[in-house]
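Researcher: I'd like a structural prediction for the single chain below. Treat it as a standalone chain; there are no partners to consider.
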Amino acid sequence: MSEWYLIPEQYRSEIELVRKTAREFAQRYFTRELAHEIDKREEFPWELYKKAGELGLISPTIPPEYGGGGLSTELGGAVITEEFVRADTTLGQCILSGAFGLFTLYLFGTEEQKKEYIPPVARGEKTFFLALTEPEHGSDITELSTTAKKEGDYFVLKGIKTYITNAPTAEYGIVLAQTEPEKKYRGQTLFLIHTDWPGVEIKPLKGKMGQRGSPIGEIRLDGVKVHKDYIVGGIEELNKGFYRALQYLNIGRTHVGAVALGMMLSAFDKAFEFAQKRVQFGKPIIEHQLIQQKLAEMVQLIDISKLAVYRAHLILDDYIKGKIEPRTMAAISSITKTFVTENATKVIDYAIQILGGGGYMEEFEVERIWRDHRVTRIYEGTTEINILTIVDAIRRGFYTL
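Model: Treating it as a single chain, here is the predicted structure.
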């Protein structure tokens, strides 16, 4: 397998064990019936999420003292993602998204904040959110309408965040707000908030195309009083929120590449199996050259995508240790996310085409893979935003070929 050439020898036994654990977990608990039920009801699979937390599979690279799995490389997280999503795109993504944004708190929070808020999420008892997106600004977080006005030891938050993963299920999470409007993006701050605080209103958003078991919602903040102790990282992190958000997105976008890789593999598995069984014109369709052409191209795109995802996660290890410049990592994460998510579109579409009419039907599941995949080209930075990031890094000399 091509990925073994990328895995440093010191990680190989760990990765092999992680892959085995994730694959066995998915084989045991991911059922087609549960996936269809979650997709139709748009409900979060709490029981499954908690089981994954018990095995340290929700926050695999966060240290054990905070309830995480304590893996020594981000590649371990990529492999778990790959295996979960390959087994089932809906259920895999549900588990992975439950801790969305938690790594922001791990990287930038105070010791007290990390010890209080990370373990319940890592154990699968609670979900988490990172609220950046606003109705007026979308992917552009250089401008915010959500404000945090200082009043003594408190900040009063007012504004709306939308399309926020886990907003309907989480008891707490992080909000990015404008603390000094005159400084624009240089005057933004990350705050920890609880969803049951006065002035916080959560509106679930239903009717998503895919990933329906991963809930999203709108967060309305109307005069929410937040003590300065709830600034992520403490008062010294005042007005550093924009930069911290971007530093996290370098990680998050890389993880999306692993999600899309798992979806490509899931689609290929179903198409390959179907092509060997389906008989047309007196022989299995895998013997027809045009079907072979599609399968061969799918293999190529998956193989190269896997190399890109694994490379990026190994680079993340050094980035998290401060050895990689953030704008260099921004280019690497954007290259990875854009390449893999865009090519996943092609791979999954080929799978639908190979299955023919069946590919369009719920029974054969590739239509659900398509629905679950489509948003990967949008969330954590659209393809268009990532393209701008890549070119900006090259122009400024932060990334060279």
